[in-house]
Amino acid sequence: MDTSKPAIFVNGGLLPMHVRKRVRTVVQVIGSDRGAVIGKSTDDQQLSVKGTPPSVPLTNFVEVIGIADSEKSIQAEIWTNFGDTFDTYSYNQLCQLANGECQLLFL
Amino acid sequence: MGHRLSPDAIATLLSNPKPDSLSDIPEIIVQITKLEPKGKSYGFDANDGKMKIKAIFNSRLSSEITSGNIQNLGLIRILDYTVNEIPSKSENYLIITKCEVVSPAPEMEIKDEIRKEEAGIIFKPKQEHEIKIEVKKEPSGILLKPKREMATKSAAQIVHEQHRNMAPTARMAMTRRVHPLVSLNPYQGNWTIKVRVTSKGNMRTYKNARGEGCVFNVELTDEDGTQIQATMFNDAARKFYDKFQLGKVYYISKGTLRVANKQFRTVQNDYEMALNENSEVEEASNEAAFIPETKFNFVPIDQLGPYINSNELVDVIGVIQSVSPTMSIRRKSNNEIVPKRDITIADETKKTVVVSLWNDLATNVGQELLDLADNSPVVAIKSLKVGDFQGVSLSTLGRSIVQINPDTPESNKLRCWYDSDGKETSMASVGSGLSPSTKSGARSMYSDRFSISQITSNPSLGGDKPAFFSIRAYISFIKPDQSMWYRACKTCNKKVTEAVGDGYWCEGCQKNDTECSLRYILVVKVSDASGEGWVSVFNEAEKIIGCSADELDKLKSEKEGSSYQLKLKEATWNPHLFRVSVAQNEYNNEKRQRITVRAVAPVDFAAESRYLLEEISKMKDSP
């Protein structure tokens, strides 16, 4: 398992805290706009995901890993299809824990 | 009665709360009810036949009351009064400063003269209580006799006379207003119910921090079929234990209601009743005709899960799929032999369940069902205990009631469904389908969650009787060279022995069969984050290995053993949710812990995540 490039679990609300850092998040694909994929974060905020998506079609939920280039966008290097259903509540809680009291477990 | 109440007397009083002079006051006659002392004066409710108002006599008049001149339920003409308003309650109350007695107490509170003329059959329940209050005040008074007859009698004489004078009681019974059980609630205390004792528990003694005591309870059923449990402690228990007889009908009042403890209740009622020494229990005579209708509260087969191993009994209705022959089971407790018969029923949920009929139900009703079996009759059963044998199993008790092809809407609906769709659909046993996603499994896989080490590190678990837990674990090892299965009877799944000659003999069914099925019985190793342990698994192993025992055996006997090994390998390191029982076995004088898998379900990751989040937040709260 490659641990050389750790990524921080974020949602819409936590992304601004990690601009210019490597982050990962799961979004629900709601559309595309000028080459970027528009996604809804697990805390219902709109994020923009830039970069080249994979050749396979995107499923409803996608995980993206990359550098946060602004408070509302990510330059994604890795895209992973997470399927059509996803428990956004649990993922959101995970983001809170990973950035809060359980920080030390993650980075 | 010469004098009558002034119509709308109270309205008249309210319209002129502070009369200027005595001549201002029209003829006002009211009845005194609920007369009771209030400090130096007496308070009452003034009744004009339609309305009532709270009232109080001027303390100067108290002597009139204590002398018996002014009586409860008597009529008075109000000569001088004032009406005041209680600001905080926006209620009015009447102060009587002068009055004269018009008539002594009649036998009842006057309500709507019209009704009274209808032979006064419909009395309000309050009326009873009015008179009862009277009785309590009198040193010796007899129900319904006019107060004048106040001879001093000994208690024994009174009781004797009461028994002789059945007429008043009978009259009371006819005129008593009976409330349906379904209308009772803790906030309304004036009720009388008419119920049959459908079950009577034994008197139990107990000892707790507050001392010793005795308690017993009865199950009561009314005409509509509603049931409620009534409990009595100590004095009340002693008072009513002999009075309550199974099968008899009683009028009961002055009990208290409270919300039922779900853990201990056996009947379907949100409330349970408690009776104390002041409660009234009167046997209703000539009530042989009062047969409570059997009221069913059917639970669909696929919703039986939450009732597993609970005290609450269930009712079911289904179409007969099969009826077994009678089996003789030896009771472990007293070595008695009892007859048992298993029937399989199905309902619109497309699930089947096995119901074990015991004793008379097995022999008589069971035989009837066997004879009718080809016609797929509908059977409705009340008061079944839900067990976890083979996932979900139902068992009859002494009080269970079985009805074959009842003429009820549910039965007809089921019949329609079966004749059109049901016959052809393939049904699954409800026990094999337990998973967190369906309501039935959800509760058991998330209740009593333990980690493997919590089980293995505690050797005293399951000492008296098996303890149940749920665990989430991975299969870490399945030993390839163990006998994975046993030969089972195709009908009852019990172990068969090789018959003399050809085929197999089943002791339970008492018959031979040329074929048998193979059913899993093996041990596997499971692991989770806390540790590992060995568990025994029966046919639930199908969910772990991914094929039936028959199929696995075929793979094993193939020349090239690799597909068998592969099958086992594929089963390894898969996560599952297990419902396990933990018991203690003796082995060579040593106590050993035995963990048995009762149910297997796939891990629902979303549900599991939420469970973990809950556990994490619990950890935060505790130090």
UniProtKB/TrEMBL annotation, chain A:
It comes from the Eukaryota. SUPFAM superfamilies: Nucleic acid-binding proteins. It is found in: Nucleus. Keywords: Nucleus. InterPro entries: NA-bd_OB-fold, Rfa2. Belongs to the replication factor A protein 3 family. PANTHER family: REPLICATION PROTEIN A 14 KDA SUBUNIT A-RELATED. This is Replication protein A 14 kDa subunit B-like. It comes from Hevea brasiliensis (Para rubber tree).
